[in-house]
Amino acid sequence: MKNQKVLIVLALFISSLTYGQNARFSQIWSSPIQFNPSLTGKFDGKYRLTAHYSSQSADFPVEATINHQNVSFDAKFGKYKASGDEAPVTKAVSVANSTAGKDEIYSKSRMHGYWGAGLNYYHYGYKTSPFDATFISASLARHFYNKSNKYFGFGIQGTYASGKLDETKGTAYDAEISGGGFRYPTPSTPNSTTIGTRKNTKTYVDFNGGAYYGMNTEAVMFELGGAMHHLFYPLNDAMGSDSESKLRHRITAHSILRLKLNPKWGIVQRNMYWQEGLYYRSKSFNDSLQIVSFWTGLEFYKIDPSKKINLNFGFYTRSFRTLMPYLNLNVTNFANIRYSYEQPINSKKFYAYNATRSELALIFTYKRYTSPGTRFYRKTNFW
After folding, report:
1. Could you tell me if 108 and 86 are in contact, meaning their C-beta atoms sit under 8 angstroms apart?
2. Tens-place pLDDT, residues 156-203
């Protein structure tokens, strides 16, 4: 137990060394395909459909509201830890002696794997916002598990992005709650008469790649992953007039630590990192556009629940400057409902943290083997 507490403290200490702003979602882990393409198909089940909605508002430097919607569908292909190469499980064979859950570690020291493919739709905008955008992505991932308790995978992704600028709807724009992806043009002078009249549509094609690695034992499970986005610097000026305004690399990274707490409750500690704007600087805009976001928190799961409907809970923060309670409701092995509300702690001092975010995620899974709390200390998937 002492070692487990040390691991938690160490993970939280590392997270405190970073800072954050301009996050897309509060519960970014509920849109894993958008975060890292290698997570496509990384779940317990055959098919997964996710709908993720976020209502975000800020009051500094202007009052602004933007809604975010993310819908994804991914599926598995191949032998994905159901029974491997062994004979099918019969009623005479207990679950404990079988190869067990599809998201659990495999019992033999052999290489196994499967493919995952998925589509992701992301849109942000509001009726009074001057800018909205849509991103449609296709992902392909390969997953491996070997040596009885180790697993890893990698994935690639292509994205078609379309942004629409229409200042006749309004000029209240806040970069903190904007979904990004495009460079919103600023007027050449503060009193420019072009404010409120500009209109344009901009599109580009983008490419991303990522990978992850994990290991699982009954006492502890950890997973590390990372991704690089905007591999070829697509032009992203909303007016299409600046050839130097390129979408520079984004990196994302995550760590998941599952610890054995007690016979009734298990714990998951999660860190997620998002940084925009690497390696490229626009001379005409004369800024770095470097944007960093970080999430850290704890989730508590009921171990081997006896009921079909179970409520788990957690608590997250963004760079220790916001508070985010989190509820996770599982309905049988088919539906998962997640809700969070993010509130800044001291927006007057940290004005980049003045946005409030209310989010709801609905996840439906077909042919899911067990609920998250069942056989908790053998699982590898907490997405």
Report:
1. no
2. 999 999 999 998 888 777 777 888 888 887 644 444 445 578 899 999
**Lowest-confidence segment of 45-49, 104-108, 185-189, 222-226 by average pLDDT:** 185-189
pLDDT in tens, 328-358: 999 988 999 999 999 988 766 655 567 899 9
The CA angle 150-214-383, to the nearest 5 degrees, is 125
The partner residues of 64 in beta bridges, in order of sequence, read 58
Q: Is the pTM of this model over 0.90?
A: no
Domain ranges of the chain: 2-378
Give 18's Cβ-side CA count (13 Å radius).
21
CATH top class, domain 2-378: mainly beta
Q: Is the peptide bond before 61 cis (omega within 30 degrees of 0)?
A: yes
Task: Tell me if 245 sits within 8 A of 280, measured CB to CB.
Answer: no
